[in-house]
């Protein structure tokens, strides 16, 4: 797979791409990542890439020409029929939310183009007439699209067949099965008096698998109950959850006793603090 990135800050990508899995993925030829400096496509002697917004207001907006020219340069050698299939992705807080499902979808393409916005954003004509996708990595605002592009690069590259040692690994991911991961332990068996659960040291593989599945479910039920709606669960697994629900209700019952039909309680007397 090849991923082209258009950015005003090519240096931003240097060290993240030089270490660990992304480094090895590039060295082995499984993934080719090409960073393009948007400034090289800037306008005039000063290679300008931004300008003041029409209609006034503060800040700067990225001009469309350098971005169109950078993408034209990237796709110049690609035959028209193939070019039409390549996602041209603008990183933007207003985009479609990036999830593991979107990562799998993008990993299915032989090429991607990522465009990093800056300032108040890019000229609307980039969205309308160049970008095929707008993607957000979450509901927060970054100074530019670069960190978001790195997140997408990382999540997508590791799904390319051969990038991870074990070809089964990505399918075993938390979220792949739509449940959170079970706890992991390694040596020592006892650290500061904190013991590794007995079952994991028992060598009883079936009991271990069952314990892990229950831990996964319990953790998901506690922290991300929304994920359970999409999970494929056995009858037994549903019965575990039903038991936890019952235990929770039993714990809450004394606290809620008699509150259902009561008038809102009177304000507490002033405790004398100023
Ligand atoms: C950006 C204008 C893009 O802030 C983001 C972002 C947040 N979630 N996903 C992406 O992108 C950077 C900033 C300003 C356009």
Describe the structure.
The mean pLDDT is 94. This protein is 36% helix and 15% strand. The protein is built from 10 helices and 9 strands. The strands form 3 sheets. Strands 2-1-6-5-7 form a 5-stranded parallel beta sheet. A hairpin with a 2-residue loop joins β8 and β9. 20% of the residues are buried. The chain has 274 residues and is an alpha/beta fold. Residues 91-93, 117, 121, 136-138, 140-142, 144-145, 148 line the site of (phenylmethyl) 1~{H}-pyrazole-4-carboxylate.
Mean pLDDT: 94
Instruction: Please state the structural category.
Output: alpha/beta
Q: What's the number of extended β-strand segments?
A: 9
Biggest β-sheet: strands ordered side by side in the sheet? 2-1-6-5-7
Bound molecules: (phenylmethyl) 1~{H}-pyrazole-4-carboxylate
The unreliable regions are none
Give the structure's gist in a few sentences.
The chain has helices at 14-17, 20-27, 64-75, 80-83, 100-107, 124-129, 146-157, 205-223, 225-228, 235-256, and strands at residues 2-7, 32-37, 50-51, 61-62, 88-97, 111-116, 133-136, 190-191, 194-195. It has 274 residues and is an alpha/beta fold.
Keywords:
single chain; 274 residues; alpha/beta; five-stranded parallel sheet; two-stranded antiparallel sheet; 10 helices; 9 strands; binds (phenylmethyl) 1~{H}-pyrazole-4-carboxylate
Q: Helices and strands in order, then pairings?
A:
Layout: E1 2-7, H1 14-17, H2 20-27, E2 32-37, E3 50-51, E4 61-62, H3 64-75, H4 80-83, E5 88-97, H5 100-107, E6 111-116, H6 124-129, E7 133-136, H7 146-157, E8 190-191, E9 194-195, H8 205-223, H9 225-228, H10 235-256
Helix pairs in contact: 5-7, 8-10
Bound molecules: (phenylmethyl) 1~{H}-pyrazole-4-carboxylate.
(phenylmethyl) 1~{H}-pyrazole-4-carboxylate is lined by residues 91-93, 117, 121, 136-138, 140-142, 144-145, 148.
